[in-house]
Design goal:
271 residues, alpha+beta, Immunoglobulin-like, five-stranded antiparallel β-sheet, 3 helices, 13 strands
């Protein structure tokens, strides 16, 4: 069934609600070993052609300075129609838009501009030495397949700036400052459906980071397994309720706004 422009606000509302749920996994924790040695995306893969909530895990590698700003540049060759942040205590988030050389059609609506970058700035101490923090974004709809490469710029309290923008031509050799990368699996793929699923890197998922910011160990019967299961069950329930609400809303007439839309200052870019 085709999607008309009037249904897009409904999908956007559901997407924002999913971001609130996903934001519950955002955390600041101490680094453990080599985990989060670089700016990385968790989960590392999601189903293509759908909406997704991801998080950029940003570590502070300095022994004396804190991270006070993080800027993420979205892929230019694969524009994403809808990008949303969520409130984070101790941080402000701003977005910058760019004009598209060629408009794109999304859910029956023609878009001439998209978000080009998101910047978080600390209002307090930032991310201290030996710690990392996760910055959540809601993105959608994503391309059907392929890889999305994001560039990240990390600014420290002593003025040091680190650019995470390198892509190694040799897959067996890791770049010194690799760009955060998101893999898009086949739509409906089980490998990308589990929030915080292990992507094979051996690093902690957002759920693991939020509950046990320590080195991974084999599961035992001390109760931590049941706690994690309860947490994931709760998240699954909320997501199910949101999905049911979305389906119910789609079955009802959706009012179309009659007022004019306000214009935005758009960033001129190369064709």
């Amino acid at each position: 069934m085709s999607t008309t422009p009037s249904t897009r606000p409904v999908r956007r509302t559901a997407r924002r609600a999913a971001l609130v749920v996903g934001a519950g996994l955002v955390t600041t924790a101490a680094l453990t070993g080599a985990a989060y040695a670089h700016v990385e995306i968790t989960p590392g893969s999601v189903p293509g052609g759908e909406d997704a909530v991801i998080a950029f895990s940003v570590p502070t590698e300095s022994d004396s300075a804190s991270t006070v700003a993080v800027k993420v540049l979205l892929p230019r060759n694969k524009p994403i129609a809808d990008v949303a942040t969520t409130p984070m205590p101790g941080w402000t988030a701003t977005t910058t838009t760019r004009r598209l050389a060629r408009p794109i059609q999304v859910e029956g609506e023609k878009l001439t501009s998209v978000v080009s970058q998101v910047t978080w700035r600390a209002t307090g101490a930032g991310i201290g030495p030996g710690q990392y923090q996760q910055f959540a974004l809601s993105l959608g709809p994503l391309p059907d397949s392929g890889t999305l490469v994001f560039n990240a710029v990390q600014t420290y309290s002593d003025g040091t700036v680190v650019n995470w923008n390198e892509v190694s031509a040799d897959k067996s050799v890791e770049a010194e400052h690799p760009a955060p990368t998101l893999t898009l699996t086949a739509p409906g793929s089980e490998s990308g459906k589990a929030t915080g699923s292990d992507t094979g890197s051996g690093k902690a998922s957002p759920t693991e980071a939020a509950t046990t910011p320590t080195a991974a160990t084999p599961a035992d019967d001390n109760g931590s397994g049941s706690t994690s299961a309860t947490l994931m069950a709760g998240v699954a329930l909320v997501v199910s309720l949101l999905t049911a609400l979305l389906v119910w809303r789609r079955g009802r007439p959706v009012p179309v706004a009659t007022g004019g839309t306000s214009s935005r200052d758009l960033e001129d870019t190369k064709a």
